[in-house]
Amino acid sequence: MFNKEFLKTLTILYVEDDETIRTSLGNILKKVFKEVITCVDGQDGVSNYKLYTQDMDMEFDAVISDINMPNMNGLEMAKVIRELNMDIPIVMTTAHGESNYLMEAIKIGISGYTLKPINTKELLATIQKFCEIKRNEKLIKEKEKELSEYMELINGIATIVKVNDKDIIIESNQFFNTVADYEDDELLGSNIIITIHPDSIPIAYKQMKETIQKGDTWKGKIKFITQNKEIFHLRCTNIPTKDENTGEVIGYISIGFLADDEEQEMQETMSKVRQNILEQKKKVLQLNQEVKNLRISNKNKPTVDRTSPLMQEALGSERKKTQDLVKQIEHYEQEVAMLKDKLSNIANIEMAKRQQVLKQINELKKENAILKDNLISAQSKIVELTPKPEYIE
């Protein structure tokens, strides 16, 4: 089935020495493709190819050419073009009596053939398939480059550890090695357990392993320990890796984000505020006790059920300090929560981009494999239909 929108994006170099065929087929091609440059022979084809690609900075998507032409035949022209561009699809239009060119064409790297008289639909389908393969290969390279850029970005702000199904570290980035106080490659071949704090193993680590074994992505916080027995925490996104053939889980990739300086500072401040609140509460309790003692000692006085103005002022002042501290800690907790959400969103966005790119790459590879299988089948049929040369003894 033709993809008209796709064909309309292609620029074709068409070479044919027969004026009648060149005019009739050329007019059809011009209606189908974005642009068609027509040439009268191989020499003209080479000249125009160099002119447009080198001098005019234009890119041809495919070449359609007759084989048997004056001045320079189609195969000689294709050989020159191949030296300039190894990847461009080249399709030859060949007569039944030209099967003796087959071996030479294979050596040059001709993409495909169309037998004369030319079946226009068959020719367009062949061009579309080869150009789709070329386009997909280009997209795969772009996506892999994009993925590489994402990973490079993540490498600078996150820890990345790749683990197999036996919990053995098979790859770890410099960020993780530095945070965990290990030299480069020192962790390779080690069990990931040596970097995880014992407190995290019964719950967080166990839950993570169960989720990964089911083939699902796990997100959560894990407590780690450095080689020098210092503690650090990572908010991790662990993605299962699977065997391409069986689909079985063969390990996982862990991407982790450290609490940054701002969050750590807030957490330390919150700890100090909590401590201050406890101290203020103690003071309030002490003042209350003093009030009770005063009431007891003055029970026979007219003011037995009243506190002194000085004591009331002191008690009110301490209560106000406690209320202010409570408001302060609530403010810090809100800021920490917002910061965590922000960091989590950044991680989720980057992971979503990475997973989308991987998905697109896999889809393109599958599509290319199908297209190549179809082309192999089509070329086999063409070879079968091509008459073998007769040899006279």
Structure description:
The chain is an alpha/beta fold. It has 3 domains: 4-145, Response regulator (Rossmann fold); 158-258, PAS domain (Beta-Lactamase); 263-348. Helices cover 56% and strands 16% of the residues. It is built from 10 helices and 10 strands. It has helices at residues 4-7, 19-32, 42-55, 74-84, 102-108, 120-157, 174-179, 201-213, 261-297, 309-385, and strands spanning 11-15, 35-39, 62-66, 90-94, 112-115, 159-164, 169-172, 218-225, 231-242, 249-258. The protein has a 5-stranded parallel beta sheet with strand order 2-1-3-4-5, sandwiched between helices. Strands 7-6-10-9-8 form a 5-stranded antiparallel beta sheet, sandwiched between helices. Helix 4 (74-84) links the parallel strand 3 and strand 4. The longest helix is centred in the C-terminal third of the chain and has 77 residues, at 309-385. It is elongated and about 125 Å long.
What distance lies between the first and last C-alpha atoms, to the nearest angstrom? 47 Å
What is the arithmetic mean of pLDDT?
Answer: 80
Helix content: 55-70%
Q: Can you name the CATH architecture of the largest domain? A: 3-Layer(aba) Sandwich
Question: CATH class of the largest domain, please?
Answer: Alpha Beta
The strand line-up of the biggest sheet is 2-1-3-4-5
Number of distinct beta strands: 10
Within CATH, the superfamily of the largest domain carries the name Response regulator
Rounded radius of gyration (Å): 37 Å
Question: Structural class of the secondary structure composition?
Answer: alpha/beta
Q: H/E element string?
A: HEHEHEHEHEHEEHHEEEHH
Number of separate domains = 3
The CATH topology assignment of the largest domain is Rossmann fold
| Percent range for β-strand residues | 15-25%
| Number of helical segments with 4 or more residues | 10
Low-confidence stretches: 301-307, 389-393
For the sheet with most strands, the description reads: 5 strands, parallel
Shape: elongated
